[in-house]
Write a structure and sequence with these properties.
The structure holds two protein chains of two kinds.
Chain A lengths: L10 E2 L6 H4 L4 E2 L3 E6 L5 H15 L4 E5 L4 H9 L5 H6 L3 E5 L7 E3 L6 H14 L3 E5 L3 H5 L3 H18 L2 E7 L17 E10 L2 E11 L8 E7 L2 E4 L15 E2 L4 H6 L5 E2 L3 E6 L5 H14 L4 E5 L4 H9 L5 H6 L3 E5 L7 H15 L3 E5 L10 H17 L3 E7 L19 E10 L2 E11 L9 E6 L2 E5 L2 E3 L2 E3 L1 H79 L4 H17 L1
Parallel strand pairs in A: 3-8, 3-9, 4-5, 4-7, 7-8, 15-19, 15-20, 16-17, 16-18, 18-19
Antiparallel strand pairs in A: 1-2, 9-10, 10-11, 11-12, 13-14, 20-21, 21-22, 22-23, 24-25
Chain B lengths: L4 H9 L8 E7 L4 H17 L4 E7 L5 H5 L7 E6 L4 E4 L5 H8 L5
Parallel strand pairs in B: 1-2
Antiparallel strand pairs in B: 1-3, 3-4
Classes of the chains: A alpha/beta, B alpha+beta.
Chain lengths: ~575, ~110
């Protein structure tokens, strides 16, 4: 009593998906919670799930005092969620007391109290050792019994009595015009108040839950969408599962080798989220189909959610680019789940998707396109839903590919869902209009944790998939389509003629070389002739000189003159010889 | 669950003589003031208006708590007029005799 630190408020887990997160553990244990809302808001089901989960998952038997709904109806309603009430009753995990006030007319004469109710409830609690109690629309006592001031007093006493009993209880109440409940009983249930609401917006029902008050505990104060799905109530807290998934460094192919090249040659990260955005008809679905095909060929399971096309339409269309999705479907590697977005609200879509994922446990999930959720809610709601979905898939290590249509009149890089922050790899497909044609361009806008190309590549759909072309970047800028082809053809022609020119020049050179060689041979031949002639003359001359010398010697000998003048004579001799010739 | 005294009585009463056919059940909660006052008030009314042809059974829910659910009782005290038909339920300690006579339709004026 003196201690300053109050004991931590004990909480009682409801087992309702998402609610225990919002309330940080559940409802106040041993106390009463008021759950109120209009007709059909799901308050009875909410309360029932609290009891059933308690009995099944937490070993806490429960008592239902139903003031409104008939037991057979109740059985049918919860049976649709897969719960067997009769079984629970037979196992003494649940006790259902149908309170019939309106059967016989009730008249008042004098003072009364609700001890009958106390005894009745107390007996039921003791019989099965109940820890949880639901009083479903206990307010009807105000309609069926007289003396409201007395009933208020008794109601207050009931709340105190429940607390003393130590049971965790839910009191449901119909929403009033001015007050939360028709008879203002929120005045007496002070520990926790939860409001359920359902609105129809553009013909689509959205259910919402809000914790109005939680004494002694912090709690999420937002309005949270919730669904009544195939497995009960599921509240969708915006912060959902948080960011604690394990990031894989394994990579998987995009199914387009050139695109893998743009991402460091390896493709996407396993378990990452990939967004493909683009204007109408720019090849988003084809990109997903190639991704699916690549995964199926690796033997991985793919789950494809289609929101605009039927599976057969998708199969037919993808055949035109050479992908046979039907074969993968036959092997049960690929499953389609096609539904018009407007069929149900966002939350139902989310629940349905989660159920399909649970059933199939795929490696890859494709959602085509997320932009079709647009009319189902505002940006915040859609973002919350997608955040929850992506977190859920990441936690399971599933690689997710989402497509989104970008409207031509908007900035290309703005997706109306503003989900960029949820996305790891963002491929942008865009039209490049040039010379009266539209061509497709592909760009990796972002890719967390990897090197990626910063170039816009041309993207061509062929009958064997997608080709990614190197974009022609020349002096006139980026060229695509026929401009690129023309440019390439022209270049090829130029290249060809250049080659021919070279050949021609080569031949000319060869000819020149031959001519030169011929000339050299010719000159050599004439030189050899000249040489031979000259040699012959020189030898003749030498021979003549020798003869002359011999002649002179002979003459000298004959005249007896010394040898000396012979040389002198010899100097002039050529002239003499020449003259003499 | 099936031990509803109100329903059981329907059959047994058919053999009774019509004149003696007031059958009342009074549900009380031990010796609480309202319970005690209800017993006294009901006895007084019966003695005065139904002399000789009435039958009152007092059921203490503290002793037979399961009957609260079986007989659909939530308020204490409750008087159930099992006979004459139709069954009527009157809640309160019957301290206002005029109201009690009207509620039980003993006085038919």
């Amino acid at each position: 009593m003196i201690g300053l630190a109050a004991p931590q408020l004990q909480k009682c887990a409801t087992g309702i998906e998402g609610l225990d997160q919002i309330t940080q553990g559940g409802l106040p244990s041993g106390r009463s919670t008021l759950v109120c809302g209009g007709t059909g808001c799901g308050k009875t089901l909410f309360a029932m799930e609290f009891l059933i989960r308690g009995a099944l998952d937490y070993g806490e038997p429960g008592v239902l005092m139903a003031f409104e709904e008939e037991t057979p109806d109740l059985e049918v309603n919860v049976a649709s969620l897969g719960f067997d009430l009769r079984q629970l009753v037979a196992e003494r995990k649940l006790h259902i007391d149908q309170v019939q006030l309106g059967d016989n007319q009730m008249f008042a004469a004098g003072e009364f109290d609700l001890d009958g109710l106390f005894i009745r409830l107390g007996n039921a609690i003791d019989k099965i050792g109940a820890k949880r109690v639901v009083l479903d629309t206990v307010e009807t006592i105000f309609t069926d019994l007289p003396d409201h001031s007395n009933l208020r007093r008794e109601f207050r006493r009931l709340m105190i009595w429940l607390k003393q009993k130590g049971v965790t209880s839910i009191i449901t109440g119909e929403r009033g015009k001015v007050t939360l409940t028709r008879y203002g009983i929120e005045e007496y249930v002070s520990d926790c108040v939860i409001i359920l609401d359902h609105r129809v917006n553009e013909q689509i029902l959205t259910r919402r839950l809000r914790v109005l008050k939680y004494r002694g505990s912090t709690h999420g104060t937002n309005e949270y969408p919730f669904i009544i799905g195939e497995k009960g109530i599921s509240v969708l807290p915006i912060t959902s599962s948080g960011l604690n998934h394990i990031a894989s460094s394994e990579r998987i192919s995009s199914g387009i080798p050139a695109l893998d090249d743009m991402m460091g040659g390896q493709g996407y990260y396993l378990g990452s989220s990939i967004l493909v955005t683009g204007t109408a008809g720019c090849g988003k679905t084809s990109t997903t189909a190639l991704f699916i095909a690549a995964a199926c060929l690796r033997g991985e399971r793919c789950l494809s959610f289609l929101f605009e096309e039927s599976p057969s339409q998708m199969i037919r269309n993808m055949r035109s680019i050479g992908i046979d999705l039907a074969a993968f479907e036959k092997q049960d590697l690929l499953r389609f789940h096609a539904i018009r977005p407007s069929m149900t609200g966002l939350e139902m879509h989310l629940a349905a998707m989660q159920n399909r994922v649970e059933e199939f446990s795929p490696h890859i999930v494709v959602i085509d396109p997320i932009s079709s959720f647009g009319p189902l809610g505002n940006v915040i709601e859609i973002r919350a839903m997608l955040a929850r979905l992506i977190d859920y898939l990441k936690l399971k290590g599933i690689t997710t590919m989402l497509t989104s249509l970008t409207r031509a009149d908007r900035a290309l890089e703005s997706t109306n869902e503003e989900i960029s922050s949820l996305i790891d790899t963002w491929l942008m497909l865009r039209d490049i209009e040039l010379n009266g044609e539209r061509n497709r361009g592909l760009y990796v806008l972002k890719s967390r944790g990897m090197k990626h190309s910063n170039q816009i590549r041309e993207f061509v759909l062929t009958d064997h998939g997608i080709d990614i072309k190197e974009v022609y970047v020349g002096p006139v800028g980026v060229l695509t389509g026929s401009s690129r082809l023309a440019k390439e053809a022209r270049e090829q022609a130029e290249q060809l003629s250049a080659q021919q020119e070279i050949d021609r020049q080569q031949k000319a050179l060869d000819r020149k070389r031959q001519a030169l060689n011929a000339k050299i041979a010719d000159m050599r031949a004439s030189f050899a002739e000249d040489e031979a002639e000259l040699t012959r003359i020189i030898q003749q001359e030498k021979a003549r000189e020798e003869r002359l010398r011999l002649d002179r010697l002979e003459m000298g000998l004959k005249r007896g003159s010394p040898i000396g003048p012979v040389t002198e004579t010899k100097q002039h001799s050529p002239n003499t010889v020449a003259k003499s010739e | 669950m099936n031990s509803s005294r109100i329903d059981q009585q329907k059959h047994s009463m058919t053999n009774d003589t019509l004149s003696s056919s007031w059958s009342l059940l009074l549900y009380i909660n031990g010796a609480s003031p309202k319970s005690l006052s209800a017993i006294t008030n009901l006895q007084n009314i019966c003695e005065e208006y139904l002399t000789g042809h009435y039958q009152v059974e007092v059921i203490d829910l503290l002793e037979q708590p399961h009957l609260a659910e079986a007989d659909q009782i939530i308020a204490i005290p409750t008087v159930v007029r099992r006979y004459p038909q139709p069954i009527r339920k009157v809640i309160g300690d019957l301290s206002d005799t005029e109201q009690a006579l009207n509620a039980l339709q003993i006085k038919t004026d």
